[in-house]
Specification:
Radius of gyration: 27 Å
Number of helices: 21
Low-confidence stretches: none
Strand content: 5-15%
Number of strands: 10
Distance between the termini: 29 Å
Mean pLDDT: 79
């Protein structure tokens, strides 16, 4: 019960900050039950005067609440189906920048993680050069067989796991209350959203997994002439420390430096788009945070990506889906685009393929009346997902992440080359993948894979039959005897219900007292 009260207090504080910063203005009262509408009106009475418009209010509130909520805001930026397109666009600007912690604290954590003094690990170790909510980065030098090498050392922020664990528990409690008291909101799956955030943060806080992502992307792109990633130093990497080769290059948003160095901005813009599409369609594994701060051009003119905490994956079905809809729009074959949605199982079969193709035509035709440099592929995917909601297409997290990443990638490419023709640039990558995977060679490989799968199933048939027999016997017993409850179980259920009513009454008094205390402290 004490834990519940602690979560309640944390959620009351979060609610107060959201109300004070004006973030509750984003809530649509018409979607709430009458009691919640009254609560919303009361909460909005404490808004600061002169707060900004739109999701700027939400960004300010999340920043004030701390690192966990900043991460939550960044996660919501990938879910326009929950917060709306406008709010998601504003939340993309939510910056994950925090004050650095002292160098001595980094040294302590590195020595603890790697089991050796800092002087034995690095020839030099700098002050922090960049800091975020989960980790910060230092520049260092190590001695290798090839000589002195410059490396980037990423160190997890002290106490960050404990802080995130506390905040996530409070978020879980809030999600449960939300589902209980606002039944219409269950379609948004608030508990699932919090658990997805928890998994994402857990991955980001284990730097060994980021090193593995770097290694996998490096293996996928080793033959790409215009893209590379840094190399992880596995001997200097643990859960709390990640060491990679240092990147000397120019950030892609520094146009003056790019031109001064003599690089071709048009070629760089093309490389950004084609590299992203190769990773997504060819490999099914892509960097999902490709903003200009994470992209460089090295002295040889190759693109280099850094910071691999957020990655996206696409299965073969999603890759085929993406490739075919892009090629379908290029060729204006809207019926094929519609059929791909149905074949993938994304649109329920009770809808008409022809009606869906007509809706897609409403998206595709206007873009063919415009100049190539005016067509946004990311906007097209956004409109496509909006149309699919009308045809009961369930939200696909991996496709939403892909679409949001494409928005950022397209922005980077267009900043380099404002006249970039997205379709001409994309077509070679898309066509090559389709010819390779959906042509004769791809069909033969799929047939071979299918035969192996069928052989495995045939080999497992005896075991499958035995398990099926056991399940059928259990079902027969259940049908004959039914489900019985012991007298002690029935009594325990009654006691639990009674406790729930008592604690519900107590919680109302605690909420009222807590609000009074918070208001007195804030004002």
């Amino acid at each position: 019960m004490i834990g519940s009260l602690v979560h309640l207090a944390r959620n009351l504080r979060a609610g107060f900050v959201l109300a004070r910063e004006g973030a509750l203005a984003l809530v649509d009262p018409s979607a709430l039950p009458p009691s919640a509408r009254i609560a919303l009106r009361v909460a909005r009475l404490i808004e600061k005067p002169g707060v900004g418009d739109g999701a700027a209010r939400l960004s300010a509130a999340l920043t004030r609440l701390g690192p966990s909520y900043v991460k939550f805001g960044q996660f919501l930026a990938t879910r326009p189906d929950i917060v709306g397109v406008a709010a998601a666009r504003d939340l993309e600007r939510l910056q994950d920048r925090m004050p650095p912690f002292p160098r001595a604290e980094s040294v302590r954590m590195i020595e603890l993680a790697l089991g050796r003094p800092i002087d034995q690990l690095f020839l030099e170790f700098s002050e922090p050069i960049a800091a975020a909510s989960i980790a910060q980065v230092h520049k260092a030098f190590i001695k290798t067989q090839e000589g002195i090498e410059t490396v980037a050392v990423k160190v997890v922020r002290p106490g960050v796991r404990e802080g995130f664990a506390r905040d996530l528990q409070a978020m879980r409690a809030a999600a449960r209350l939300f589902e209980r008291f606002v039944p219409d909101a269950r379609r948004l799956k608030p508990m699932e959203i919090v658990e997805t955030l928890a998994r994402s943060v857990a991955v980001e806080m284990d730097l060994r997994l980021e090193a593995a992502a770097v290694s996998e992307l490096a293996e996928n792109t080793k033959d790409d002439p215009d893209f590379r990633v840094p190399k992880p130093e596995w001997d200097l990497t643990t859960r709390d420390v990640l060491t990679t080769t240092w990147i000397d290059g120019i950030r892609l948003n520094d146009l003056a430096a790019i031109e001064a160095a003599g690089f071709d901005r048009v070629a760089l813009g093309r490389a950004v788009i084609q590299s992203f599409l190769r990773h997504a369609i060819r490999d099914g594994f892509f960097h999902a945070d490709m903003h200009p701060g994470n992209l460089f051009v090295d002295p040889t003119g190759r693109l280099v990506a850094v910071d691999f905490g957020i990655m996206g994956r696409l299965g073969m079905k999603e890759r085929r889906f993406l490739a075919e809809i892009l090629l379908g729009f290029i060729r204006r074959d809207y019926l094929r685009v519609a059929r791909v949605h149905f074949e993938a199982g994304y649109v329920p079969p009770h809808h008409s393929v022809e009606d869906f193709a007509q809706a897609i035509r409403a998206i595709g035709e206007p873009i063919h009346d415009r100049r190539a440099d005016e067509i946004s592929m990311a906007k097209l995917l956004t409109l496509l997902f909006e149309i699919t909601y009308l045809f009961d297409m369930a939200t696909r997290i991996e496709l939403v992440m892909l679409q949001k990443t494409m928005v950022v990638v397209e922005g980077v490419a267009r900043n380099l080359d404002p006249k970039l023709d997205m379709w001409t640039t994309s077509e070679p990558v898309v066509r090559e993948w389709i010819e390779r995977n959906l042509g004769p060679i791809g069909r033969m490989e799929q047939a071979g894979s299918g035969l192996l799968t069928l052989a495995g199933v045939i080999g497992d048939l005896p075991d499958i039959a035995l398990r099926a027999e056991r399940v059928l016997n259990q079902l027969e017993d259940l049908t004959a005897k039914g489900v019985t409850l012991e007298r002690e179980s029935i009594a325990a259920i009654g006691r639990a219900e009674a406790r729930g009513h008592r604690w519900g009454t107590a919680a109302l008094w605690i909420i009222a007292l807590s609000l009074m205390i918070i208001l007195l402290r804030e004002f």
